[in-house]
Amino acid sequence: MNFWRKKTTKKNSEANQRLRLFQENGKVFLEDLVELCNGQSNPIKAYSANQILEATDNFSERNHLVRFEFMYRGMLENRPVLIKRPVWKLYTSDTLEKICRDIAVSSMVSGHKNFLKLLGCCLEFEYPVLVCEYAERIPYKTPNLGMFSWGLGTRIKIAKEIAIAVSYLHTAFSRTMIHMDIQPSNIFLDSNGTAKLSGFCLCVSIPEGETFVKVDAERVEGVLDYLEYKYVTSGVVTEDTDVFSFGVLLQNLLTRNCEVVDCCSDNDDESLFEYEQNVMKLRISDRVSKFVEEGRVFEILDPKMLESLVDEEHERQRMEAVLMLSLRCTGHRGHVPKMIEVAKELRRIEKWTQR
């Protein structure tokens, strides 16, 4: 009798805990929705903790897609899904706010084909869990696999589709949305090869009628090579912040695999001057610009891509055009374009025919 009483008590305790988490997480999430879009967004389906645990086999290692990261493969309602769950290394004082921002922005853009579609979320865990359509993240750390066997046309297509997605973020809403974390780990391909942007934990909105917003310069987050210098040194966020990151993405799509360094706000022991110097030393964009200036462009291009060229002269012209566009994005050549201009230029380059 005592055994069943204890078992019932435990179940009731777990149910009460999940209800409490649902209410607390839901409050933060709704506050984010109100800030960003006055509470108006696509309907978001709520999944239970039991559904998530069953879909991932209790977050089993065999369903864990990337070691030390937070994505799991699962089956939910007879369809494959991606389940995003924060892992220990992400736990900070603002982890909940970041995840709710990811859910809120994902819900706003889910109708667009170039964003990873949010199917729903679960608020019954300590930190909310996202359920997304299934797609494969582009492999960017394995030199002999994935993107490193793609031809130039595929790389330009992916870049164009991500540029369209970023343009949408910048222009489709009453408040300009700045992604703040455009880099390969947030880009996915579905079964049709359509590129999709994800990862809105760091997303910042610019108030209506304004062109920038200032954030705490001491809390710089993201991948160091992809961070705009102005943002790093002053905390000023503009559309150019994303344009810079996208320019570096273009460069990484065409050049040899480059190591990147994570930059977190925990590096309080490093002075701002030292930090600025490290940014300048590590920037991919500075290295690409130097090679272009010295006429050594093809020394840095991915040899796998060069091997796949059909019409070498024509394809080299397209590669040079993309690289020059990337250097405009990073402020190394002429004025920095808007993302909608970048998307149009990539469309034009994609359609180039042999002259």
UniProtKB/TrEMBL annotation:
It comes from the Eukaryota. Keywords: ATP-binding, Nucleotide-binding. Residues 30-335 form the Protein kinase domain. One of its GO terms (biological process) is response to temperature stimulus. GO terms for cellular component: plasma membrane. InterPro entries: Kinase-like_dom_sf, Prot_kinase_dom, WAK-like. GO terms for molecular function: ATP binding; protein serine/threonine kinase activity. This is Protein kinase domain-containing protein.
